[in-house]
Model the fold of this input.
Amino acid sequence: MQIELAEVEASLALFAEGIAGRYYHIAATSEFAGRRVRLDPGASALTRDTLYLPERLEAPDASAFRVLALQQLAHREFGSYRFDVTEALARLPHIPA
Done:
């Protein structure tokens, strides 16, 4: 069964807000691909307020979109998108550069 992002976008935004405690825009990955990518060391390589998801998924139900949204929210919450090699090496001095 093919699930369209447009069909679940509103409920997915509510799901993300409930998990993160703040509003996130939901957009198709194709919208990100057309934007100029700006790398800002103080921000995510994506955007701070948008979750980019596939336009459609081959899945039994819409829960697959929730899993993808939850994965992105977890990366943001725990800083995976802000990874900095220099900072990591400074925190782990026993690892040779």
Notes: Residues 15 and 66 are 8 Å apart (CA to CA).
